[in-house]
Amino acid sequence: MKRISLRKRKAFTLIELLVVIAIIAILIALLLPAVQQAREAARRTQCKNNLKQLGLAMHNYHDVHRSFPPALVAENKQRAPYSNGTTRANWAWGSFIAPMLELNNAYETMDVGSVRASDALEETHPGYAVLTQGYPMFRCPSDTAPEINLRRRPSNASGQAVGTSLSNYVVNHGSNWFQPVQTVYNNNNCWNQVQGPFKVDGNTRMRDITDGTSNTIMIGERIYDDPNGDRGDHANEFHRAGNVWVSMGDGFNGNLTNQGTSFWAGLSGVAFCGRQYINGTDGWEDSMGASSRHTGGAQFLLFDGSARFISENIQHNRSRCPDSLYDSLLTHQWGEVLGEF
Predict the structure, then answer these.
(1) Is the pLDDT of residue 82 over 90?
(2) Strands across the sheet with 271-273, in order?
(3) DSSP one-letter code for 258
């Protein structure tokens, strides 16, 4: 008689299954941070490449025009002063370097220099479509902001506030407060020393960077939202990134003692200053400073074309006069001797 053997099928016990699940969970927990770090490293590299491309465009602009572009052009000098964030648009530095970024069609469609920026923001103008779409080269991949800046909205010729192309990159205005003109008054508060290379109607040349091109910042980062999240009623006052092509800024009336208010909105939309710490979270002044989603600091482009990551813990006193390492990097004619940064 033939024997029939019944083989027992092997299977996991409940305890073994739980152990396997636990091991898989631990491996995933160990793997995810590594994946996230790798992705952030890639985003940081892309951000650095964006800065270098903008720097190259700036240098090409300088080769053609014998100066760097102004932070913005004061087209609306005789109009009503800044009020409620609805000031008429002015052409900003991004619009002037567009041909150097292979954006000739966008430049010509906007009619930069041929019409007022506020006229180009009218929906009937062909440039409206260019002014209201996103451009990856002006965006840090780590910032999850929208393509359009809905916080800083310049107005068109009809007085309507319009959200325009958002930029995470802003030029260096100096180590403290915004002043719109090339030459500022000296009220014993060091205003003439804190000025940086980019101003309203400015025309800084390479030869003007007497502190050295490797010791002076050209462009820095700024994020759209508060890095600590929504802080309530004043959340819209913080950071807010910048604008690519145009910025706000009416109200220039020739009175040098009253320019911080009338042009603050315009300059802070396309430039940054050292009034706030890097990644500062102290209040409304955050929207003047530099900030990023990169942990521990932000990336900056120097005038020599190199991109550097600068720690948020860099020496910075926030006093009225440039007396710290960060101030020295933001001023271009102060003659400081710099340490390591």
Answers:
(1) no
(2) 271-273, 169-174, 217-221, 297-302, 307-311
(3) G
Residue 12 tokens read as: 């996991």
Tens digits of per-residue pLDDT, 56-76? 999 999 999 999 999 988 775
Q: State how far the Cα of 201 lies from the Cα of 23, in Å rounded to an integer.
A: 63
Q: Between the CA of residue 330 and those of 68, 236, 287, 322, what are the distances in Å?
A: 16, 26, 17, 9
Q: How confident is the model at residue 227 (pLDDT cuts 50, 70, 90)?
A: low
Run of H or E residues at 90: strand 90-91
Q: Tens of pLDDT along 100-118?
A: 999 999 999 999 989 999 9
Tokens 């650095």 -> residue? 48
Q: Which residues, in sequence order, are CB contacts of 330 under 8 Å at separation 6+?
A: 172, 174, 175, 196, 216, 217, 273, 274, 322
Mean pLDDT over the full length of the chain: 81
Which of 192, 187, 188 shows the shortest CA–CA distance to 175? 192
CA 47 to the chain's CA centroid = 11
The identity of residue 102, as a single letter, is: E
Task: Give the whole-angstrom CA distance, residue 270 versus residue 96.
Answer: 13
Query: CA-to-CA distance for 114 and 335, rounded, in angstroms?
Result: 39
Q: How far apart are the first and last CA of the chain?
A: 90
Check if the beta carbon of residue 221 is closer than 8 Å to that of residue 240: no
| CA atoms within 13 Å, Cβ hemisphere of 198 | 29
User: Which residue ranges make up each domain of the chain?
Assistant: 35-330
Distance CA 298, CA 148 (A): 22
